[in-house]
Every structure is written in C-alpha cells, then in structure tokens.
Design a protein that fits this description.
This protein is of the alpha/beta class. 42% of the residues lie in helices and 20% in strands. Helix 1 packs parallel to helix 8 and helix 4 packs antiparallel against helix 5. It binds guanosine-5'-diphosphate. InterPro entries: ATPase_YchF/OLA1 (IPR004396), Beta-grasp_dom_sf (IPR012675), G_OBG (IPR031167), GTP-bd (IPR006073), P-loop_NTPase (IPR027417), TGS (IPR004095), TGS-like (IPR012676), TGS-like_dom_sf (IPR023192).
C-alpha cells in the first residue's frame, strides 16, 4: 500500500496529528482496526462514502476499505544530514515512503517552544528541504564513485543511473530539489529506484489553531503560494481539533466538525490531497460477500488494475465487467445499471476510471 511519511521540525504537532489520524473512528473501520506495526507506523482505512453506498445497495456483508500507512518520522533537526539528532534513522525512514507530509507550525502559542525561536513556516520548510538536499548530494557523490567502474565496463543500467544522478546533482547544486526535474517516461523506473529524498512528492500540512481551521491564516496563505509554485500539495489542519475528534464516536465527531465550521475531518482532507498529489484513484469490487475499495494510479489499464487484487488476475486477464459508480447508484445496483444499458464489457486496452465498479474474468 501507499506510505506517507510525516516530517517536520520538533514541536510543530507531528505526533499529535499522527496519533489523531490513526485513532479516529473512521480510521478504525470495523474490519481493519488501527494496528500498531511499530509505535510510529499506523495503518489507516481510507474513508470513502461511495464504498458505504455501494455496500448498502448490494447488501454486502463486509466493507473493506483501501488503506494508507502513515509513518511518524520524528527527529529531524538542523544538521540531520550530518547525523545529528536521529539523523540517519530519519533519512532511512524517508527513503521508504511514497510521499512526504510536511507539517509546518502555523499556530502561535507562547507556551510551546519553537526550535528556531520564531514562527515562520516557509523558513521551516526550507530548513527541512535543505537537510534532504544535502543528504541527497552526499549520497549521489557516493553512488557516482561506486558506479564508475561499471560505467566504464559499459553496463547499460549503470550508464542510465549515472546520467540521472548527474542531472539530479546539477539541480541540487543550483538549490533545487530533485523533484523539480522533469523525468522522461522511459527513465521513470530507474529514477524511482534511486529513492532520492528530495524527489519525493511533498504535501504541506499547515497546523493551525482551532479557531483558524476553517479559514487558515496569513501564514497558511504563504505556504499555499509556495506549494502552488512548486507543484506541491497543501492542506490546513488543526492537530488539536483532530485530537479531539479522535476521541469522539462518529456521530458526535460530525457534530463537533460542524461546530468548528468544517465539513470534513482532517484525515479525509489529508488523504484526498495525498491521492491528488500521487495521482491515485479508487475502483470497487462489489458483491453480497463484500464491498471493497482498491487503490491504483491514474492511467492504470484493466489488467494491471486486476493485478492489484492478485497477480493471477493480471496474468490470466480476459475482460472486466464495468459499471461507472454514478451508473451503479442511478440503477440502484447491477441489475438496474444493466437495464439502463450501463453495463460494459471492457478489454485489455481499457483505462480504469475513478469509481468504476469492476468484476474481472480471468483464466486461472
Ligand atoms: P512534534 O514534536 O512535532 O511531534 O509535536 P507534538 O505533536 O509533540 O506537539 C508539540 C506540542 O505542541 C504539544 O504540547 C502539542 O499539544 C502542541 N500542539 C500541537 N498542535 C498544536 C496546535 O495546533 N495549537 C497549539 N496551541 N498547540 C499545539
């Protein structure tokens, strides 16, 4: 599944947010209670109202949401790339995530010390980014040295790696993160395998005071502008509100949200922004036994989408019986959608759409 690492300077609210996100009623959906893998890793059910509607129509016994993993990556301080604080462990943790949720302190509170002695989320963003970039430069220098013999020997993979590493180094030396590079489609796989820290997609999470959760403030506006300029995502969340929400049963949580002028919990908004940033989407499989959500990247073809369920589904793929989500709802189920002529049989060349209700036929 997808993994999102939560990073940020000390005292910005990372742990508060992590604990809240992984403990809300929504996260603890019946079949997948919050499970602690390690103290700082939490598996969360992705809330999706569509799945509940589909299950209600089909009378599914079980609802199985898709999941996202949050990793609370503590210990970043200035100098982490030099091994200060929990530096090395921190960097190793970041390599393993698909995206970085970067928590920025956008709340004033005289009682909570800021490590740099001032509230300045843009400067904080730079501090962390700089550490990641320094770590990347050092690892690139090391890797280039290790590659040189293979490159001389004409190893094709090594030559490609060297070319990509050198391009990344040029960007980093000019003060730009590796994610600022445009990577050719053919190089995607090799590029991803380099696992550069500053290449990970970033989602800025502005942690604000309770009263500012709905509208944000001047600081969050500045972060939004930065995010926009660099193609990053951004959300405004109050970790304190999320903390309170996580302690309420679902109905009271909804009421509390309304009182705060919010329509959606931070978990939902964070996940949606994360999906957007990573180009993720959801398809469904629906039957009397279970209604289940599956995560794929945008542009995934039917056989590869089937492969998310099981490798055999992809290898033996024959066709995908398909009903768009809206058609399934409008027809009040498969039979109605069929009658309305909304039941389609799609082949190998079909690009799965967000919300598709699919049934795969395959040679086993
Ligand atoms: P971390 O070091 O980034 O993990 O930060 P913590 O989650 O441990 O939070 C540090 C302190 O800031 C704790 O005392 C939190 O209760 C407090 N805190 C977190 N979010 C907020 C917020 O939105 N407003 C205020 N006033 N305090 C917060």
């Amino acid at each position: 599944g997808f993994r999102m690492g939560i990073v940020g300077l000390p005292n910005v609210g990372k742990s508060t947010l992590f604990n809240a996100l992984t403990r809300t009623a929504a996260a603890q959906a019946a079949n997948f209670p919050f499970c602690t893998i390690e103290p700082n890793v939490g598996d969360v059910a992705v809330p999706d109202a569509r799945l509940d509607k589909l299950a209600a129509i089909a009378g599914s016994k079980q609802i199985i949401p898709t999941r996202i993993t949050f990793v609370d990556i503590a210990g970043l301080v200035k100098g982490a790339s030099k091994g200060e604080g929990l530096g090395n462990q921190f960097l190793a943790n970041i390599r393993e995530v698909d995206a970085i949720a970067h928590v920025l302190r956008c709340f004033e509170d005289g009682d909570i010390t800021h490590v740099e002695g001032r509230i300045d989320p843009l400067a904080d963003a730079e501090t962390i980014e700089t550490e990641l970039m320094i770590a990347d430069m050092e690892s690139i220098e090391r890797r280039l040295a290790n590659l040189s013999r293979k490159v001389k020997g004409g190893d094709k993979d090594a030559v490609a790696q060297e070319r990509l590493l050198k391009a990344a180094l040029v960007a980093l030396e000019a003060g730009r993160p590796a994610r600022s590079l445009t990577i050719a489609e053919d190089d995607r796989r090799a590029w991803d395998m380099l696992q550069l820290l500053s290449a990970k997609p970033v989602l800025y999470v502005c942690n604000v005071a309770e009263a500012e959760a709905a509208e944000g403030n001047a600081l969050t506006a500045a972060v939004a502008e930065r995010a926009e300029a660099e193609g990053a995502g951004h959300v405004v969340i109050s970790a304190r509100i999320e903390e309170e929400l996580s302690q309420l049963p679902a109905d009271e949580a909804a009421e509390f949200l309304g009182e705060m002028g919010l329509t959606e919990a931070g978990l939902d908004r964070l996940i949606r922004a994360g999906y957007e940033l990573l180009g993720l989407q959801t398809y469904f499989t629906v039957g009397p036994k279970e209604a289940r959500a599956w995560t794929i990247t945008r542009g995934t073809m039917a056989p590869q989408a089937a492969g998310v369920i099981h490798g055999d589904f992809e290898r033996g793929f024959i066709r995908a019986e398909t009903i768009a989500y809206d058609d399934y709802i409008a027809g009040n189920g498969e039979a109605g959608a069929r009658e309305a002529g909304r039941f389609r049989v799609e082949g190998k060349g079909y690009e799965v759409k967000d919300g598709d209700v699919l049934h795969f036929l395959f040679n086993g």
